[in-house]
Amino acid sequence: MSLLESRTVPLWIGNEAVLSGITFPVTNSATVATKPLRPGSGVVHGSGGSCSPGRRICYESVEKKRQLSYGQVETPIDDFMVHQINIQTSIDLLEELAGQIMHTTDAVVQPSKQSDDMLAMVFREPLGVQVGIAPWNASLFLGMRAVATPIACGNTAILKASEKTPMAHHFIGRLFHDAGFPAGVLNVIQHSQEDAVSIVNALVSDSRVRKINFTGSTAVGKIIAANAAKHCKPVLLELGGKSAQLVLPDADLDKAAQAAAIGAFTHHGQVCMSTERILVSESVLDKFSEKLAASSTRLSENIRPGASAEHTSKVAALLEDARAKGARILGGGEGAHQDGSFLTPRILVNVTREMKIWHTETFAPIALLIPFSTVEEAIALANDTTYGLSASVYTTNIPLAIEIGRRLESGSVHINSMTIHDEAHMPHGGVKESGWGRFGVPWAPRNIRTKAYVVQGEGDPFTLCDVVLDEVQPNEVLVEIWYTGICHTDVVVQHGGMPLGGYPAVLGHEGAGVVRWTGSAIKDKSLKPGDSVLLSFHSCRQCRFCLEGRCGTCPHMTETNFVRPARRDAEAKSPISLLDGTKVHGQFFGQSSMSKLAVVAEASVIKVDARPEELRALPPLGCGYLAGAGTVFNVVKPQVQDSVAVVGMGAVGIAAMLAAKSLGVRQVIAIDVVESKLKAASSLGATHIVNSAAEPDLQTALHAIIPSGPNSIIDTTGLVGVLEASVKALAHGGTLALVGVPAPTATMRLNALDLLLSCKRVIGVIEGAADPHIIIPKLFELYRDGKFPVDCLAKVYPAEQLDKAITDLESGLNSSIHLFALIVILPMASAIARAGLLAGKVSVITGASSGLGQAMALEFAKQGATVVCADQTPGPNGNKNQLTHEIIGDRGGKAVFISTNVADKSDMLKLIRDSANQFGRIDIMVNNAGIAPEASEPRPIWETSLQTFERTWGVNMRGVFLGCKYAGTQMMRQERNRGDGRAGTIINIGSILGVLGKPGTPAYSATKGAVIAFTRAVAMDYAPHSIHCNSILPGFTRTPMISAMTENVEIEREMAQRHPLKRLGEPQDIASAAVFLASSMSDGITGLNLSVDGGLHSQLSL
């Protein structure tokens, strides 16, 4: 860097540049050049009070800051630091503040626990003057962070600039001025190093200063904290660090090595989050060291000098102390190689706790490479420091990484990312001697950014948008929406056909998902994060109807579900906003479930003990199914001898029909104009069906079935003609339940005298006159018992087909689709992890690199399982382009590879132990690995060698024995799976040849026959321990093993003809069978040898 020209850098006071006659030199360590600086003198404080936040001004600041250049950077900084950390991160911070600034002074309403009629209001108020003390090493961003967030929250701020980077910190004052901030909002103080102590003491002791934030060394931070304590002032401190990067055995070593080198050497190591310790598993230490040395060499060529020759000399002394006590430099090399402020980057090995460098933050391009043998040791080493600012964990096992991260004593933990990582919308700070408190936008306004489908105006389409959710109130629940139903109500409201509080709006009123947060004042104390929940309509829970369990009859239904948000604060503000601050009508039906995250009123949240695979079928229980079934249970209340007719076989109508059937009602009549729906209703239990389009008179049609007329008619159409005909068709004393929504101007014509003399009644029913907290658990139990088969009634649309789903709904659907409800999967949850039959389970599959093993591994991952791929090589014949665990990872699943010889006892024991240690349990063990030496060269028994027989037995049977023994023992030690109640599942892969035999394969057929008998015996052993054990017997299936037997098409065709289904099996056939045996669908099965052979087993011979 060339000599900087002489430049005057003033103080910035009251929006004006203030000069004094004082000058002091600023040294550029890259050239040891100086420039004179003329700052102002004295201390001038901000105006106190609060400043009205302005989003426009923040956005103006962003545009001004985009004009930054190297001219504002006085210290030698590499391009990454300039562009990514200093400039771009500053812009990100301002943009986040601009998007959320409106919420910083919101009120929080707390319901009183003494009385429902009392509310407590908590207001966020600005503190006043806040002092930010920023360092030089990332001067632009850290200076901006020190003052921008306090200002956004309505405070005024004083930036005490660093004497090493006066221009950068002066630029921040100029930036706020040019963007239009009022005078006195931000003052910037410049000073010499000699005056630093007196300036800080004056600021801290001044009565107008209400809070101090400091970023810098731990030693200085302690002094400032002690001084502030004397004046009872809060402080926010981000101090030093000794950050550790953990590299586990299954990590991507190339990425981990590159991250470690960048994390250690960026900005000459002068970053508080620098990677100073690299903890590596002993099993990959050599490979990792080679890659780290290569990455370090490449980066060293572009390392710029440090900021101070004096500090560099101190670090050189630490290096010499370590070398004198036995440490050495990775890749060779001697000494520290100091050249002024430049220090040659070094990775030290053979370091011990006796060395000073083990405990001391170097703030230099130096890192320690430390091996570990177990995860527990790695955690202990990482925590063996007085610091706790940042850490990182490299592994493909994300659940394990999260578990490790929660045990690390660190302010932040980054998974598969380097320790130098900070984002504006995330909290940032340390623990232990790395400070306390958190910087970051969420720690001021505390709002949540998510995605939702927004209807911008009446008749507009559903558009996926970024939105901001307000802080969850004490009587609310934050729910992660996995699935949401969409029905006619959403579409009618979209087009303005029903009252709504306004647009833009987020609709959706049949959500299903998982609790992520609960407010402190919710009444259901059993509700906790992680619980599966269904969402339903909102009611006041206070009127006589709600107290009697008839919440659907609540007189406030329209108001709290359509017109205004469910929250009870004084202004009833929606919890949803667009990024520009525009309020979005939210808490539609207490939920607005067409969103990734939803702030839901407690009254709308119903806890269910549902497995992940069940949730996708259940959203309509919250409204459509509830409305129909509730009308039967709560209003009509039919007896066994009664007759019930249901008009309209939509979601509501079919639910009413199923509810009547569950009560054992004698006659249930389904009425519709779509023949396919009527046939489906008949298959579900309707005793009679009526196609009203083919019948000129509904009364005549019903009386032809029941001469006296049905006791009850439930109408879901809302059509006046149908309603009038239904009244006439009713039996004496009968009830017409009006459930469908009529047109606003619809008018029924009834003969009042006839109504009186026949003792008939017509009653309007909203939401089944039901309490969701009572009826939904009841319907869920009926579903579990098979009496309410809603899983076969709905069609699931992926999120990208939302428009098609609505079109299908509005058009009445193709008559060939027996569809009663629509469930739209919004892009809120991973289909692999949350919708699958094996969601949350941990599986171990031997022989997973190819053939049947690979097919099962891929399908297990697709169904949500974590997969441990065990084999001798990770790909087919070592093919690195087809690695099973990498394919799973690329598809969004979770998988690791563990090299295993299934015939080796120690390998199998290690496989089970390592899998259980990494993932906490093993739910599924698939013993698949096998060999077939006779496949390519069949031999009769008299030509089969003992060596061939023993080798085949050693893999095919010994591997199954070891897998069953060690996996089963692990399963007996662990708790039962919450989803299906099992301790574990074992699946052994046999062969149909174990039943039928085949000439020329005595060894292979014998081992597979042994697997069959062995499986039955083991199943009986493990049954008392809730461990299921079954086997799958494939027929001729397209695998590499079969390929060895079918070298030409004719042989393959002949083999296929032997199967009754006239085709060879596919690996996917076996994978699907394995999923069945591993899932809750096979709860009543153990000891089964399942033939998947196209019917081959039914023949007496081959």
TrEMBL record:
Any Pfam family: Aldedh
Keyword Membrane: no
InterPro entries: ADH-like_C, ADH-like_N, ADH_Zn_CS, Ald_DH/histidinol_DH, Ald_DH_C, Ald_DH_CS_GLU, Ald_DH_N, Aldehyde_DH_dom
Domain Enoyl reductase (ER): 457-813
Biological process (GO), any one: gamma-aminobutyric acid catabolic process
Keywords: Metal-binding, NADP, Oxidoreductase, Zinc
Molecular-function GO term, any one: zinc ion binding
Residue numbers annotated as active site: E238
Cofactors (names): Zn(2+)
Signal peptide span: none
NCBIfam families: PRK07231.1
Family the UniProt entry places it in: Belongs to the aldehyde dehydrogenase family.
Name assigned to this protein: Vanillin dehydrogenase
